[in-house]
Specification:
Number of helices: 3
CATH topology: Thiol Ester Dehydrase, Chain A
Shape: globular
Radius of gyration: 15 Å
Oligomer: single chain
Order of helices and strands: EHHEEHEEEE
CATH architecture: Roll
CATH superfamily: Hotdog Thioesterase
CATH class: Alpha Beta
Number of domains: 1
Length: about 150
Amino acid sequence: MSNSNIEIEDAIKEKANMMLDGKHKNMGDALGIRFKKINRTEMIAEMPVNENTVQPFGILHGGASVALAETLSSVGAWLNLSDDSNTAVGLEINANHIKAVRKGGRVIGIAKPIHRGAQTQVWETRIETETGKLVSISRCTLAIIQSRK
C-alpha cells in the first residue's frame, strides 16, 4: 500500500511508516482496511463492504466493524507510546451496531482517544457510511504491555 495518500502526523511519521511497511499480513489486510489519517489524537481508515466483510445476508458483519474499531484503537494507542519496548493490546471492546450497510459500499472508521495513560488507554470509534450516517460506535480499552520480540 502506498503511504503517500495517508495524512500522517509529522512527529510520528517514522514510526507510522515502519508499521505501514511491515512485511507480515494481518487482519486489516484481509478486510481491506486502508488508513486515511494517522495521528495521535485521531485515526481514520476506510473498509469496503464486500464478500470479506459481510455476514450471510449481505450486510456488514458486526465482527468486521469491531475489527476495524480495534485496529484503529490499537494502532492509535501504540503510536502514543514513547517507549519502544511497550505495545498496546486490546483488553476489552464493546460495540453498538446502529445501521446496516449493504454489500457494495464502504465504511469510514474514526477513532479518538478518551484516556491515554501509562498502563491503559481508552479509545472511542465511530463507524460511518460515506455520507456520514452512524453505523456503529464502540469503546476499546487497551493494556500497555512490554513487547515480546
